[in-house]
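cron nightly-structures :: item 1 of 1
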Amino acid sequence: MVLKLHVVQAFHGDCFLLEYGTRRSEFLLIDGGPEDTYDSHLRDVLAEIHRNGHDIARVILTHVDGDHVQGLLKFFENLKSTQQRDSLEVGGLWHNSFSGFMARHADEYRGFRDLTNPRILSEMGIARAVRTIDEGDYLTKLATNLDLSLNEDFGGKLIASDTAQVVSLGNIKITILGPTTKQLNDLREQWYQWLRLAKMSVHNPRSFAASRSTVPNLSSIMFLVEDGENRILFTGDGNARTIIEELETNNKMNDNGRLHVDILKIPHHGSRYNVNKTFFKRIIAKKYIISANRRHPSKKTLEWLVQSIKENDQGAEIVVTNMTKSIREFLQAHAPDSYDYRLTLLPEENHSIEID
């Protein structure tokens, strides 16, 4: 029985391949990193999987953001251009698309897009946000052209933790931990209000930028993978409170209010605003994964993490995809031997690193 994680070099983004199975390995592709990820690393990783006679059971986009979706767009475009039966097979896509999320307000959004151009979007300070929305919808379009099912494991509906059943694939069970239906409904209302304000400001874009009206963030799809012996927790860009609440709701905590997992993907590249000291005290892992980038992880996040590791007195491994200034400074003040942890860096010459 196999359950291991392949962490792909995704620069400032996220990209993972979860390998599972009994007699024959299957794979989940979880996020695709930013645009350069596919040509630089993911293409070769997927080619090796295909050469070994395997396919991708599901592609999972945790949320619509450039550092998660762009590599998937390149992957799907490549599949579309080849359209060969001997190419890598994909069994379906999990994705809470903006068009599905905002279906009731689709005409309003299209009206807004019809009134705007790149210059106006830039002056409004929302060019990146609108591009991200378009990228998510383009992924849906590519999946449709490839005859890939969208959220078929969830009846074709948006993925939410309180409506989704536990999904069984081969030897693993996947419990959806977020977002909740309430979170999606609240976000939908936030988006609608933001959209109305943006549409009214099209003819005075700089006033909209000056108003500092922030773009609501679509919640990440978060989930726990179990095979009966091992557990891997995928947190996307989620936040500590939601993750812990959903673990409690799904009765995943032990009698001491803690969850022990083999691998924990730390939320949002280790941003201090997505985790806290309590998070690491209540979710304890043997191995922690951080997709490090220019700004993250925060030194405060690393401090909370190693303090928890030391208190647990069991040791742990921290795997990072890139060396950053914050990690270097942290290492100078928190030596691994003093806090009972080991730091592993994805080798610069490698496309990925295998964690089991």
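cron nightly-structures :: done
The mean pLDDT is 90.
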